[in-house]
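Morning F.,

Quick status update on the modeling queue. The single chain you submitted on Monday has been processed. Sequence for confirmation:
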Amino acid sequence: MSQGLNPQFVKLLTNNQSALYAFIVSRMGSVDQANDVLQEANLKLCKKADEFDSERPFLAWAFTFARFEVMAWRKKQQRSRLARLSPTYLFRPPRQTVSHLPAQCCTRWHRGLRPQIRRARLAC
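Structure tokens below.
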């Protein structure tokens, strides 16, 4: 890649952008972030351009990169969803436990929480 990309590779990549985009959208089920995933796949493809075997089908090789980028996007989405959960949801004791425990036990559990989570829990 330091010497530049092979013109044939660039032509293959640009001619197949719509097919790559359609493949990514079909895997993601969402058009919103498909352009970002396509961009990431294009970057990876360019970095690995010297490993491409011109005797093999380009699109199959490119779809492999796109598939891995979609999987990375999904993993990132799952992590960000977990991070967006409210502290009250994450640290709330199970309802069935609270109903039959003595009040002092719940108070002891509540005191063990970090102060900002304790305030959020009291607001519920």
